[in-house]
Design brief:
Structural class of chain B: alpha/beta
Number of domains of chain A: 2
Number of helices of chain A: 11
Strand order of the largest sheet of chain A: 1-4-2-3
Strand order of the largest sheet of chain B: 5-6-7-3-8-9
Shape of chain B: elongated
Distance between the termini of chain A: 33 Å
Order of helices and strands of chain A: HHHHHHHHEEEHHEH
Number of helices of chain B: 9
Oligomer: heterodimer
Distance between the termini of chain B: 12 Å
Largest sheet of chain A: 4 strands, antiparallel
Helix content of chain A: 55-70%
Strand content of chain B: 25-35%
Shape of chain A: elongated
Largest sheet of chain B: 6 strands, mixed
Radius of gyration of chain B: 21 Å
Number of strands of chain A: 4
Radius of gyration of chain A: 27 Å
């Protein structure tokens, strides 16, 4: 065949040394520093707010709340800060979703939308390695930032937990705590990345990320979390405040009478039978020969639950990132 | 070693075949032009060759048998995609740095001196450069990788005539200095005449013409003669017949040595005439290998064959 009149050129053999992984550090930083700055700004502003109000909250708790049932505590601590803590609990739920939508979803969707993937994926580094390096680097940074932030949130919340206003299992607090929050942020990022690769357009990918994340978070809080470990059963009326009552029902003579859903029945019975007394429904019904049953998760299971939730979210994130890399490698443009 | 070799290559998007039964071998050391109307499958073929797409049927290899997208193929093939997509928010210097990080070789000195010659400020963001400058920047990034094969998809579509000239000058310089093989797609025929020395004509997803431009031009003649005699001419294979009131123009496969029938005049053809004639006759083909008999214009649908 025609001979190439080429100056000395490296031989291409099968044992070609790949471009070193570390080179992606600069590439990732340079291309995504604006995104990282956005995440840092979001978490930073919230962290400053939590830090400043947290100092006040801690001060108020230390000076007024010994004991926590005192009137001073009620006025200076609870009355003053309950609203801002509740607002923070609601607002922070959105943080992982925002990170997933604005850091995760555009990562590949923008490359596809603007056509720059044709540039990036034909470089010597190789497209699946490029994708894996970017996703892992950014996922680790984002998860670490979320982890640090959730430690601050736990400190911020601790006086309220100590005063008994917030049980650790509360739906709107549990997923903001250390391990779970890190896991949710990581999962949101991975959901965003996969959505971006599947949908290939930035805005629809952001919308899909928000929808999927909200659905998953809601399903977990409503149906999944209570099943992490088999609940304990009790008939004792005095459960510790930290326990998370999953279900409760009444029996009479060894037979099921009605469940917690029968609140109208409970109210009716209490109204007619124990109207004069100051008893709780359960106490009233117990006096009338019913047995109160509760299945519950004791407060001591908080950390096991955190690790279970963090664990499956980590596994899910790894799966989603693997799926994204697989798509980049095998599903051609 | 062929820089691109395809056999029975086909690509289907949904239910539409963008490319089918494509059998092709582009030898090295050429500027090969991939020509065809819009939708002929040019971009598809190039995307398959650089590994951005996977074939539905058949196979394609680059640089003498490397699978596209393999580490060795990525290392030796540089690609400038249609509309030269670059990261618009990165400066020229950052794009150089980025490309250097993503490749085993990168000739930083070459890249910087090219930018200097082109008057592209290194601090300027890619998005703020003119279309011509963006194309030149993308080309510089590709050439600084010191590839063996440079693949350009419609590199001149968005450029004005001056920018086109400058762009092709850069390509030709690299070709001459460095021996890089070039495959470029275009539907701008006039531009190609100056630069291409190998032609691949793609039509309706099939290869219709492939060969060195000199050979193709030497083996085709334009015959002009009486319109009445157009149908009786049978000395050499006729590719295309264009009839006027009195005269007919026949593009035939004939060399300058072939006898011209009485009453007829023979002219050499230009690349553009040749290309247009074949585009108007999708059934005709001119492919390397044993010369076929009269390529009957109505006998379409046969797979192109290459015997080497």
């Amino acid at each position: 065949m025609t001979a190439l009149t080429t100056p000395a050129r490296p031989k291409h053999d099968a044992g070609l040394q790949p471009v070193p992984w570390r080179r992606m550090a600069w590439v990732t930083w340079r291309q995504h520093r604006a995104t990282l700055a956005g995440v840092a700004a979001l978490l930073g502003v919230l962290a400053v707010y939590l830090w400043l109000t947290g100092l006040q909250i801690h001060h108020a708790y230390a000076t007024s709340c010994h004991p926590a049932s005192s009137l001073a505590c009620n006025i200076n601590f609870t009355g003053r800060y309950a609203v801002s803590v509740n607002v923070a609990r609601v607002l922070l739920q959105a943080v992982p979703a925002l990170i997933g939508a604005f850091a995760g979803a555009p990562l590949l969707a923008r490359e596809m939308e603007t056509g720059t993937f044709r540039f990036a994926w034909t470089q010597g580094f190789g497209r699946w390695r490029w994708t894996l390096a970017k996703l892992v680097l950014l996922a680790v940074v984002v998860a670490a930032a979320a982890g640090a932030f959730s430690v601050l949130f736990s400190w911020y919340l601790s006086p309220f937990s100590a005063a008994g206003y917030s049980i650790p299992f509360a739906t709107d607090v549990f997923d903001l705590r250390e391990v779970a929050f890190t896991g949710w942020t990581l999962a949101a990022f991975a959901i965003g990345a996969l959505a971006g690769m599947l949908i290939r357009r930035v805005v629809p990918a952001i919308a899909a990320t928000l929808a999927v994340y909200a659905g998953l978070a809601l399903a977990t809080a409503l149906w999944l979390r209570q099943h992490y470990m088999t609940p304990l059963l009790t008939t004792k009326l005095s459960l510790p405040a930290s326990a998370w009552i999953v279900n409760q029902w009444y029996t009479k003579g060894g037979k099921f009478a009605f469940g917690a859903r029968g609140s109208q029945i409970i109210n009716a019975i209490q109204h007619y039978s124990c109207n004069s007394s100051n008893l709780s429904p359960a106490q009233c019904l117990t006096q009338h020969g019913y047995t109160w049953w509760a299945s519950y998760q004791p407060g001591s299971r908080f950390w096991p639950f955190q690790w279970i939730e963090g664990g499956w979210l980590l596994a899910l994130s790894v799966l989603l990132i693997a799926a994204t890399v697989w798509l980049v490698r095998h599903r051609a443009a | 070693m062929n820089v691109i070799e395809a056999s029975g290559l086909g690509k289907r998007y949904g239910s539409t075949w963008a490319l089918r039964e494509c059998t092709l071998a582009v030898p090295p050391g050429h500027v090969a032009a991939l020509v065809g109307p819009n939708g002929a499958g040019k971009s598809t073929l190039l995307n398959l060759a650089v590994g951005l797409a996977a074939p539905t049927t058949g196979a394609v290899t680059v640089l003498g048998g490397l699978p596209p997208g393999s580490p060795a193929a990525l290392d030796g093939v540089a690609f400038v995609a249609q509309d030269t997509p670059l990261y618009k928010n990165l400066s020229a210097a950052d794009l150089l740095h980025l490309t250097r990080n993503l490749n085993r070789r990168f000739d930083q000195r070459y890249a910087q001196s090219r930018l200097g010659e082109l008057g592209i400020p290194e601090k300027r963001k890619a998005g703020q450069l003119s279309g011509g400058q963006q194309a030149q920047l993308a080309l510089t990034l590709a050439l600084a990788r010191r590839p063996q094969l440079l693949v350009l998809d419609e590199p001149m579509a968005m450029l004005d005539p001056l920018a086109r000239h400058d762009f092709m000058a850069t390509v030709m310089t690299a070709m001459a200095d460095d021996g890089v093989s070039v495959v470029l797609s275009s539907h701008v025929l006039t531009e190609l005449e100056r630069v291409a020395d190998y032609l691949v004509l793609l039509s309706q997803g099939r290869v219709q013409v492939a060969g060195q431009v000199d050979d193709l031009l030497a083996s085709h003649r334009m015959l002009t003669g009486p319109a009445a005699g157009a149908d009786t001419y049978a000395d050499r294979p006729v590719v295309h017949v264009r009839r006027g009131e009195a005269q007919a123009h026949l593009l035939v496969r004939a060399t300058a040595d072939d006898p011209v029938p009485p009453g007829w005049e023979a002219h050499p053809v230009s690349l553009e005439e040749l290309t247009l004639a074949y585009l108007r006759e999708p059934g005709a083909s001119a492919l390397p290998g044993p010369v076929r008999g009269r390529p009957a214009p109505r006998e379409s649908g046969q797979p192109s064959e290459v015997t080497r």
